[in-house]
Amino acid sequence: MKIAIIGGGYVGLVSGACFAEFGVSVAVVEADAAKRQMLLEGKIPIYEPGLDKLVADNIQAERLSFPNNLEDGISEAEAVFIAVGTPARRGDGHADLTYVFAAVEQVIMALRHPAIIVTKSTVPVGTGRKVAELAHRLRPDLAVEVASNPEFLREGSAITDFMRPDRVVVGTGSERAREVLRRLYRPLYLIEAPIIFTDLETAELIKYAANGFLAMKITFINEMADLCEKVGADVNDVARGIGLDGRIGRKFLHAGPGFGGSCFPKDTLALMRIADEAGAPSRLIQSVVSVNDARKTAMAARVVEAAGGDVVGKRIAVLGIAFKPETDDVREAPSLPLITGLVAAGANVVAFDPEAMAGARALLPAEVEFAEDASAAIHNADALVIVTEWNEFRALEPTRLAQLMRGRVLVDLRNIFDPGAIRAVGLEYHGIGRRRVEPG
User: Fold this and answer.
1) CATH code for the domain of 406
2) Do 356 and 329 meet the contact criterion of CB atoms below 8 Å apart?
3) For residue 339, what is the DSSP state?
4) Residue percentage of the chain with pLDDT more than 90
5) Band of residue 436 on the pLDDT scale cut at 50, 70, 90
6) Which domain holds residue 118?
């Protein structure tokens, strides 16, 4: 079986490598010549654990290729997946489908045989129907079927998510498309992964509804964290107490500085617009967006308050820039408004992240200093701020922190440290939604 994937970005590359691991012949068509050359040389333009080896192994096995033109890539492909970007459109928050329709049009005009066009990109409800109409209008001579197969890949664990998914969603009205995608995902039947076949509109909405609900869980526990601070409760215990309820679940109940990344911010905005235009406004999602935006903006003020109300001339160490660990993605990361706000307040910010510093340089003020490692960032800091919960930060010994720091303030925006252990070495601990107790 042969398939083609249009777009060698995060979703396209991970999906292509994983399908190839299933034994499928996969051609990933990447329009950016420089990126394509990197991939041919075995260089992965994104950081995702295990992806470099998976790509290299399947190139060597001749199951994964990166053709230099669209025609070669889609030749004999039973299914062509569209995996290009759908960023939030400036001004209104709608998903920008410019790249999607450009890719679809190119594929339709280049096809020389019947095929299935599958939208893997996150697209608004109704996009699949528009793709089908476009195909029929441009090529009435060709049998082109359309399906929606949204991705549910978490950055940092995308390969596991693909190989052992909670579910696979396929939306289509075509029996031929169902049969092709059923064969493509056959290896997952062996591990009894649920595969949901539904219509186009439902599949498209499932992706937005899933991300909207998860974003809502994050925002809810963040608001509970604020309440905990006011009443003297501990949000970690609250999260555990409600998360053990099988109707709620423990995942995505970790209080922090707000959600970021490539999916939740743009998908919640897009879901708002979809709901508004359909005449069924989602007030919950509207609140999630506004509360999360306000929270990220407020983090700098939280650090300033913890540092005594004034950070002018103070050295503030920030550990973590990526929006989450095990990725180099800084899109909509809470670290960006935090660091920018601290610089505006007069702080001397020194930052470190294991993977995300290269991408962050162009997005942060020129005054920000980037350290070579965590210890160098912490050295002589008046205050230390934890923004991303990388394991190497979790492993930092409280005694070592106290030795390296000049000041005594530690602001733990991810609650990765034991407050008692931090206070025992004489540091002042400020967590999220946790009781404030002074050292001693």
Assistant:
1) 3.40.50.720
2) yes
3) H
4) 92
5) low
6) 2-198
* Neighbouring residues of 68: CB distance < 8 A, sequence distance ≥ 6: 33, 36
Phi, psi (deg, nearest 5) at residue 386:
-100, 120
For tokens 């669209």, the residue is 70
410 sits in which H/E element: strand 409-412
Going by C-alpha positions, the residue among 300, 304, 314, 354 that lies closest to residue 330 is 354
Residue-wise DSSP of 13-63: HHHHHHHHHTT-EEEEE-S-HHHHHHHHTT--SS--TTHHHHHHHHHHTTS
Residue 241, SS3?
helix
CA 378 – CA 406 distance, rounded (Å):
9
pLDDT at position 248 is: 97
Asked if the structure places residue 437 within a domain, the reply is no
**Which amino acid is residue 286, in one-letter code?**
Q
**Cross-strand bridge partners of residue 88:** 95
Decide if 18 is catalytic. Answer: no
Q: Is the pLDDT of residue 437 over 60?
A: no
Residue 319 lies in a domain: yes
Q: How confident is residue 228, by pLDDT bands cut at 50, 70 and 90? A: very high
In this structure, the dihedral spanned by the alpha carbons of residues 289, 196, 175 and 12, taken in order and rounded to 10 degrees, is: 60
User: What local confidence, expressed as pLDDT, does residue 438 receive?
Assistant: 52
DSSP 98: H
Q: Is the pLDDT reported for residue 268 higher than 60?
A: yes
Averaged over 104-119, what is the pLDDT?
A: 96
Q: Which of 37-51, 64-78, 97-111, 401-415 has the lowest mean pLDDT?
A: 37-51
Q: Is residue 180 part of a domain?
A: yes
Structure tokens at 44: 């992965």
Q: Does residue 27 sit in the same domain as residue 101?
A: yes
* Selected catalytic residue, list 84, 135, 180, 263: 263
